[in-house]
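Many introductory courses stop at the sequence. We go one step further.
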Amino acid sequence: MKIVLASSYGFCFGVKRAIEIAEEHKGAVTYGPLIHNKDEINRLKVGFNIGLAESLEDIGTEQDVVIRTHGIPKEELRALEKEEKKIIDATCPYVTTPQNIVEKMSEDGYSIVIFGDAEHPEIKGVVSYAKDLEDAFIVLEPEELKSLPLKGKVAVVSQTTKKPEDFAKIVTALMATRKEIRVFNTICNATFENQDAAAELAKDADIMVVIGGKHSSNTKQLHSISQRDCSDSYLIENEKELEEAWFEGKTLCGISAGASTPDWIVQNVIDKIQEMKSVEA
C-alpha cells in the first residue's frame, strides 16, 4: 500500500504564529485552548509550562495571558484589561479581520449576518464586536434568513474555516431580498488550499485519513470533503485511533491534516500505518 500526503495540509499561518508566541512566554496561561489540538496543547504544557484558563478566576495574579488563536469575546478581553493582566494576543489575523468588519459595519448602521457555528469560539468572539447584538445574526443555512428582522442594508462575513460554496448560498439568498449587501469573504486562504488538496487526493485514494482535533471545524470540513470521493475516510486525532482493518485490501492511503495539527502528529500516524502494513511511502 502506498501513502500519499495531500499537497497542502496541517499548520496554517495563524496556528504557527500562536504556537511560537506561546513558546516565547514560558509559564503563561492561555485563555481558552490555544488551538483545537489536545496533543499539541499538552506538549506546550509539558515543555513550556503553558497553563490553560477557562475563566478569569483560573488565572494567577502574576501570570501573563495568551489570547487563543480563535480570539475571545470583546467583553472578556475588556475584563482582562481591567484586571491589569499582561495580555499577549495570539488571535489569528484572519480572525481579527471579521471582528473589525463586524464592529465597523454595525457602527455604520448595517445588520450583521455571520455564516458560522454559533457555539464555535471564533464566532462567539466575532459576534461580540457588533454594536447592537440584537441586530447581529448567526446562520448556517439560507432558510434561516427568512425569519430574521434584517434592515435594508446588510453586511455578511463568514467563519474562517467554512466552505466557499456554502457561504455563496447565504450571499445568494440575501441578494434576493435586500437592496444593499456588503459581502466580506473572510474565509482563510489556507482553508481553501487544504480543502482543494484533500478533494483532489480523495479522487485517487481508496482510503483517506484526516488528522486533527474532533472539535476542529476545519478538520471536520476536510473529513466531509474527503468523504465525497472516498467513502472510506476517517477522522482521527492521533495514531492511537488507527485500526488495522481499515487498510485491508487498500492500495493508496491519502493523508490530510487540519490547520491545528502539527507535523509530529502526522509523522506518528504515518509511522503507525507503516508498522501495520507493508507500504511504499
